[in-house]
């Protein structure tokens, strides 16, 4: 980094919003799991889209790469710098606009957390369609950049389906503000969709218009236990197509055991596999839920939450799993998407693969089974270097063999960039590279992400 760049960044955003302190940078260069680390030369925190654009130009002119950071909840090292980058944080972009109740939409800054967005929507008796266990930290800018899914995907879809407009600062300093007040707008390229899911490789998302949804009048939650995974998958395939489905989550009993041991939150049911389902609608779905569970091959009786407090208790196990996975050291995570009919075979093969490469590791599976989006986590996995890379490569190949995708909702980041070709054709990758070159010909924006 040139000696004058920090001074130039301070002129743009204010000295108090620029840091070159090694301790500050070290804390910003580790990923959410604690497993991957990088290096950076400076941290800058712009307070507006104009400041973001000016920072990008200053870094480009100094030939210094930029890594964008939001809530830093990426699980694929998507915010870990590799080239002494300048870290551009969107944390100060926290404006929350008024809710348009009639059109059910609102505009928010990229640094607004999912929890803050949900609270603002709830105050207007509306719902934001994406919910994550990391809601208190994850930001809408990062969620848009990775097209995050989450706990309500089976009902509302991924983040892309919630975004109606977008503000983006491009690498050359141009600011694109793509907004439309109408719901049907067929005027040329869909620029909003181009930046959503691009993982910050084409520009910095600074604000978004989000779609909101009516709040269901009734909601009922249940957790059911199963002796084997195949029985759970059969029930999941029924629930995911039911009118009013709001959540359909798989929980490995080993994960439930961890939450009981370390958080004091015990599962309310027995069985090796647990299924959390939630139905919601304007008509009470309790009777329909009971009918469907009566037809399932369960272990014991399901636990049912009829009111908000009871539902929250049932959700506690599922939401607590992510917090306890790191108690025995950084877990090795695999975020995958699979056809539902091939999930059981994959899990058996993956368990054997883990036993071969890391016999002391404990595989824990959970995720959004209604969408085939699953998170396989290896607890007490002490592999490093070549040994870790060998297991990772073998697991990616196994996912491809079972007709899956190497990423379901966390993006590619830097961890999965070498496996992009397993889910994309050569022509796909070439087309994406051409788009990247058009927007960022110098290749200085998020250079460690997406492309090998």
Overview of this structure, please?
The protein is of the alpha+beta class and 452 residues long. It folds into four domains: 85 residues, Uridine Diphospho-n-acetylenolpyruvylglucosamine Reductase, domain 2; 110 residues, Uridine Diphospho-n-acetylenolpyruvylglucosamine Reductase, domain 3, CATH 3.30.465.10; 107 residues, Alpha-Beta Plaits, CATH 3.30.70; 95 residues, Alpha-Beta Plaits. It contains 14 helices and 16 strands. A seven-stranded antiparallel β-sheet has the order 13-10-12-11-15-16-14, with helices on both faces. Strands 5, 6, 7, 8 and 9 form a five-stranded antiparallel β-sheet that branches. Strand 7 and strand 8 form a beta hairpin. Helix 1 runs antiparallel to helix 3, helix 9 crosses helix 11 and helix 12 runs antiparallel to helix 13. The longest helix is centred in the last third of the chain and has 17 residues. It starts with a helix and ends in a 13-residue tail after the last helix. One of its GO terms (biological process) is respiratory electron transport chain. This is Oxidoreductase. Keywords: FAD, Flavoprotein, Oxidoreductase. Belongs to the FAD-binding oxidoreductase/transferase type 4 family. Its cofactor is FAD.
